[in-house]
Amino acid sequence: MKSAVVEGGAGSAPCAPSREADIGDKIYQLVKDIFPFCRSVAGEGVRETLRRLKQEIDLVIREVPSGTEVYDWTIPREWTVRDAFIRNASGDKVLDFRACNLHVLNHSAPIHARMPLRELRDHIFTLPDQPDRIPYRKSAYAESWGFCMAHRQLMALPDGDYEAVIDSSLEDGSLSYGEYLHVGASDEEVLLSSHICHPSLANDNCSGLALLTLLARHLAGQRTRYSYRFIFAPGTIGALAWLARNEANTKRIRHGLVVSCVGDGGGPTYKKSRRGSAFVDRAAGHVLRHASPGSAILDFSPYGYDERQFCSPGFNLPVGLFQRSLFGTFPEYHTSADNLDFVQPEHLASSYSMIQAILCVIENNFTPVGTLLKGERQLGRHGLYVGGDGAPAMQSANMAMLWTLNLADGNHTLLDIAERADMPFAELLSVARRLQAHGLLEP
Amino acid sequence: MKSAVVEGGAGSAPCAPSREADIGDKIYQLVKDIFPFCRSVAGEGVRETLRRLKQEIDLVIREVPSGTEVYDWTIPREWTVRDAFIRNASGDKVLDFRACNLHVLNHSAPIHARMPLRELRDHIFTLPDQPDRIPYRKSAYAESWGFCMAHRQLMALPDGDYEAVIDSSLEDGSLSYGEYLHVGASDEEVLLSSHICHPSLANDNCSGLALLTLLARHLAGQRTRYSYRFIFAPGTIGALAWLARNEANTKRIRHGLVVSCVGDGGGPTYKKSRRGSAFVDRAAGHVLRHASPGSAILDFSPYGYDERQFCSPGFNLPVGLFQRSLFGTFPEYHTSADNLDFVQPEHLASSYSMIQAILCVIENNFTPVGTLLKGERQLGRHGLYVGGDGAPAMQSANMAMLWTLNLADGNHTLLDIAERADMPFAELLSVARRLQAHGLLEP
Amino acid sequence: MKSAVVEGGAGSAPCAPSREADIGDKIYQLVKDIFPFCRSVAGEGVRETLRRLKQEIDLVIREVPSGTEVYDWTIPREWTVRDAFIRNASGDKVLDFRACNLHVLNHSAPIHARMPLRELRDHIFTLPDQPDRIPYRKSAYAESWGFCMAHRQLMALPDGDYEAVIDSSLEDGSLSYGEYLHVGASDEEVLLSSHICHPSLANDNCSGLALLTLLARHLAGQRTRYSYRFIFAPGTIGALAWLARNEANTKRIRHGLVVSCVGDGGGPTYKKSRRGSAFVDRAAGHVLRHASPGSAILDFSPYGYDERQFCSPGFNLPVGLFQRSLFGTFPEYHTSADNLDFVQPEHLASSYSMIQAILCVIENNFTPVGTLLKGERQLGRHGLYVGGDGAPAMQSANMAMLWTLNLADGNHTLLDIAERADMPFAELLSVARRLQAHGLLEP
């Protein structure tokens, strides 16, 4: 693999800054496009979304029939919802699915009935603590029906009879997921995965879907060391369906990230793989430490997104979770406030840049070896000394060379050096290439 | 040993809460019963105490003759004290052993002499910093005579001649210690030891003696994985005498605790074994972290109680020290204020409960193995999901299942899982049994 | 080597306190003697200094011809400066080398020219932030000429023409360095190195040169376990020249210290070797922790003094850097304020004492083995118990014995014990010798 490493090290794609200066706007536009679709675990909403992503990259869409057993789970029926509302005695709609698809319990069974408010209330979910926001709720594995509503609005409803209508169906069909493979020099893979089962929630997870799609498009024209596998699948059951169909192939996965909630201004947050010291854990930890003083590196726990499946003990893949604000910790989480105002192009762009930086470490890490190990190099003689009068940038440039040369003994990778020097990997990568070009490191 | 483990894991004694709800009161009563005896390193006071403990458990009382060489030490002569007082010129007793046995230097030689106060003073110990308390002092290995007295009282004595009487004798006899073995499924042993050489000091160590005695009685009717050996011996020399007589048997000791000062409201404190990472050190550290925010886990040092002997390099046994307030750090320590008011039933009960919890970990730790390792379990399908609306208790119950299943790969014991999940061992043990009952873990 | 260890352990030199009570004054006097010489990388200034040191110890002075290739470097020409000044139009000297040799750019090419101030300014270095101090600057590897001056003085110069004279020459000759070997029982060596290339800077590094010279003189009459090699060489190129001539001998170096800036009142500071866990790193860390609450232990970095060369990857020697204030962090650094007032006998003496304490650990560390490992020793029986009424010194003396005996199992060196007991090595060494004398440790 040595040659592949060196080849990759000589300028591979993920380190090259995106040629699209307006990448934040482009991701945001794609978020906007897929925001309205009423996704669920299985049904047309997912397929509409996948078709939109396919306009950007050559996505393969796969179907898994309802009823298929997947480890401890069963692929559910497809959910179709045509309309839903609650009408008061005067015939006015007091809740309307067309205004916001969160109003219907996701994967809800159909209902058409008239009942008094006190009875209907048992089927209405609200957030008393956030009385103006509609909660997102789902019931994919137990058949029930229900609505979601702003608490203040529910409180304002007068007693009396209401007509509850959910014009939905739950029928055998299939669960859909999308897959895209960027082929690199090696068949060792980097897995990048985003869940696609939530309806109109912008951060969770239109943001992740859009970011990974445009990252895949960016890679398309590039030569890389690793192959990159993108998966857009419904949470839990979709990831499990992919794993069940690809058990043998999981051996190829060397690194991976689950990506969601990447459009808000919080974090960044990285949750480590179950292994805790996988290379991706070190790479992401390194990048985040240098990206922001507010970054949080969390240990693995068996609660969260699809890293739970990839890291279940039978797979135990080296896959972590990248987010901005951690799921469940921001008030907009799983509410109607997770909308197109909550995500911003600038945050999408910086998330994109951090994920690229993590992949840059994975793609380009190598073990530099100095051509002279005895004594310090005289940088000036090689035209490498950055002169000036002690300005920090100059000092940093010289220190990066000194660190790289001092640790280029064949026992340290560039990430080892970056960590010991406490400098960004990308800066040391650029220094290492310069030192190679001047003959101070082996080519 | 696998079967013993599983057998033990299925409901063994130390985890079962004591059936005696009033355990604190019962321990306290026993403390009261043994408090008055005038114990010393060797003599009738120890035997009276052992006979009282034998009313609770089937204690074996052993005798080691004076003069026996025990490693670097020699069993001292027996001490008998019949009376002791100081009388002033008018014939009034200004100090009386019958009022408090701390008044006599423990193991004091006899004296009957009249002398001026300035001469007598050289033989009177006081605590100038705590002028109303009588200190506890002993002289077991160097012959001398003396009294202990409240400093304020000594200061108030007028000059003049006094009659000093200590009607004691130091004669060849034997050192006594008590031993009790609860036989479990395995002949591997847990050692539980309390020193029995202090006179009327309630916390140090009537409390430890009484607690271990009632714990032994509680175990008597139970099936356990380990055998439990209880030792009630005079400090240092008693522990060494036991070690010298049982050198070969020390190989069986897998875990152990020295127990003293367990009736005050401080701590809890755990001082690690010399090994520093023995299983009992992990178990006690785990239990104490969850028991109290004020708990202190201390590294081993060669100063303290009989853990010094069990942990001397030639034995290096996995034995730690459990206390409430650490010896030497509370003002009542080794004074007449360490009396029956200083120890309380509630503290005795909570110490009992913490020691039971430590033994529960030792007794029940095992390596759970999931019956399906690929993908997360669908808890709802198995009737295990604890529903509700995100209340902490519900979340904790589900998290305990998720952690156990995620780490049930054959490489983690239940204590490993409890530490990684940061949850009490007992909670995970109950969860693991439930998961076994539902077929999600191997039986 | 066991016998050498024991021999060394029985009272070897570096632990014996210097017989010279006025060692600080003696070091200071030597600092004063060598302060005036105008040292540079190569030239007569270095030789004058070495000749003065040779009055104290039997120094060998070695010469390396200009033009010799030394790894990535070339031995420069010798610099000779006879006079230098700037004269104004009236013929008054506004800068005079004879007042302070920092006034001339070290290793400056000759110049004799008249030019307007605005042109001359490009060749004058000042410190705007410290306007009354003359900076120290050098140009050993690129030919240029220049002056150094107080900023305030430069600002006060009226416009007009000035006469700039540097009567210097750069000619082939040789670089000089001094070497002194104290022969011990073993041919394993401790390296002690101080740079000798700076002109009149008292702390950096007349202090290091003087301290090591008097330490070498102190060792001269002593029996030691290790051999001690002292090197007084120009920074970087001098250390490299020594390494190039002694490559095979570097295998003998077991421990080492670079010593500079040891006369100010800051720190102490120890910068670890590149290995990070060399024995000298542990020994110095231990000594400094006990020496001062203000001590700083720093990780290796490839910037600093000659530890950079000794620790370059092809050598990777176990050599750290001992300083008081860390180079570059004190305002007097590399200015005319680093003068004979800045260094003080008391600081030189305490630096000397700390370096001795580090060498004491290196020289005397051994693995004590108890003659009885079972049970605690009865210190009183051996006349070793330090009685009294709990005073801290008494407790500490007994604890030192208890720790040593408890860990004297053949698996712990005396430094291991000192670290675990959190007591100074020298105290435990004295205790261990006492225990050996009483037969409690093997001889």
From TrEMBL, chains A, B, C:
Coiled-coil segments on the chain, per record: none
Keywords: Metal-binding, Zinc
Cofactors, names only: Zn(2+)
Ligand binding (Zn(2+)): H198, D204, H334
Record domain UCP01524 winged helix-turn-helix: where: 374-442
Residues of the DUF2172 domain: 78-169
Pfam families named in the record: DUF2172, DUF4910, HTH_47
Signal peptide annotation: none
SUPFAM superfamilies the record matches: Zn-dependent exopeptidases
Cofactor note (record): Binds 1 zinc ion per subunit.
Stretches assigned to the DUF4910 domain: 28-365
Top-rank taxon, per record: Bacteria
GO molecular function, one term: metal ion binding
Protein name: DUF4910 domain-containing protein
UniProt organism field: Kaistia nematophila
